[in-house]
Amino acid sequence: MTDPFAFSEDQVAIRDMAAKFTAEKITPFAAEWDESAHYPVDVWKAAGELGFGAIYVSEEGGGIGLGRLEAALIMEAMAYGCPATSAYISIHNMATWMLDSFGDAALKERYLPGLVAMETIASYCLTEPSSGSDAAALKTTARREGDDYVLNGTKQFISGGGVNDIYLVMARTGEHKTRGISCFLLEKGMEGLSFGAPEKKLGWNASPTAQVILEDCRVPAANRVGAEGDGFKFAMAGLDGGRLNIGACSLGGAQRCLDEAIAYVKDRKQFDQPLAAFQNTQFQLAEMATELEAARALLYLAAAKVTTGAPDKTRFAAMAKMMATDTGSSVVDRALQLFGGYGYLRDYPIERFWRDLRVHRILEGSNEVMRMIIGRDLLN
Fold first, then answer.
1. Domain Acyl-CoA dehydrogenase/oxidase N-terminal, which positions (predicted)?
2. Could you give the residue ranges of the DSSP H alpha helices within 103-216?
3. Which end of the chain has fewer CB atoms within 10 angstroms, the N or the C?
């Protein structure tokens, strides 16, 4: 992978550390995890020892206090081995960052140390069965009763649902569509908190997905993150970074498939010559590599804007997410085509990446919503 930016020594060291971790702890096992739907919790704990559970959590909160560019470098490197694994690291970081940024001192003292070390694992619960792209239309309610809130509703497509320890749940505490939403921290085992059956999915099999079901779930008011009514604001603030991370996951996975395709066409012979000798093959590889570098450059630019809080950061995060995930899927699809029938077999990693990257165009806001965000910002 070439560097479109002149990275600092620290940034290069971070990226190389993530690549080494991936080569040793993820890549050799990723196909088996996919095949058996194994959730590699032991790998999460090892990642936590490197600080990857709290990449942009403040140093005061126990994190390593890095920016969004460094986070993107880590996600991209880890997705080279397994996009589902890397994407889950993103989800955990988003939940941990939200607690560090908006929780009160007592709540952070109680929960942050375990989350930072990835000794406890977090899920982020916003989407509902009837509110996907229109996230503010959520119907889960939180009714105040003395020192508690009573939550009722269902969250859909929750990564780690039923397995993870901590759930950051967005619930309605008021009538206003956005200012009536609050954020709550729930622990697995709380009375009234249950989970649906694991979803059977096209990809991301190394990351379990299930409904989170709340039936008169009593949560201490002390477990509210931030002020009542501020939850949707927190959720949207987290999504800028989440969109960058999922874009980085697409780039890392697509880069792996491009590298696999280059090696394959050098070795595979048809009509008495390597596939690499055909001009069509060379043109395909040239386009794939160029598109990846263009998407990478935009993503790194957007990461810098989100880190510095630039006024157009949300638009650039949406642009980068859209371009990186569209490009990633396209590159992997063309890599599979270069492999021919072998690309369709599980003997090679291409089909797994093809399945895993497809959902990235839906996650963290679909790419249709990204286009809406970009267009509205341009016309504002």
1. 8-119
2. 105-117
3. C
Residue 341 burial (CB < 10 Å; 0-12/13-18/19+)? exposed
Asked if residues 118 and 21 have their Cβ atoms less than 8 Å apart, the reply is: no
CATH homologous superfamily for the domain 9-117: Acyl-CoA dehydrogenase/oxidase, N-terminal domain (1.10.540.10)
CA 257 centroid distance within chain: 19
Q: Would you say the CATH fold of 122-229 matches that of 9-117?
A: no
In this structure, the strands spanning 166-172 and 122-125 are: parallel
Cα 348 from Cα 358, distance rounded (Å): 18
Full-model pTM: 0.94
Angle at 125 between CA 124 and CA 127, to 5 degrees: 125
Q: What confidence category does residue 124 fall into, taking pLDDT thresholds of 50, 70 and 90?
A: very high
Class for the domain spanning 232-379? mainly alpha
The Cβ of residue 112 has, within 10 Å, a number of other Cβ atoms equal to 22
As a dihedral over the C-alpha atoms of residue 267, residue 29, residue 93, residue 375, rounded to 10 degrees, the angle is: 40
How far, in Å, CA of 240 to CA of 314, rounded? 6
| Span 230-248, average pLDDT | 93
**pLDDT tens profile 41-64:** 999 889 999 999 999 999 999 999
Distance CA 144, CA 229 (A): 13
Alpha helices in the chain (DSSP H): 9-25, 30-36, 41-49, 68-79, 83-102, 105-117, 231-267, 279-308, 313-339, 350-358, 367-379
Other beta carbons within 10 angstroms of residue 18's beta carbon come to: 28
3 state DSSP class of 199: coil
CATH annotation of 122-229? 2.40.110.10
**CA distances from residue 252 to 86, 241, 346 in whole angstroms, order as listed:** 9, 17, 20
Q: What is the domain partition of the chain in residue ranges?
A: 9-117, 122-229, 232-379
**What residues are annotated to the active site?**
364
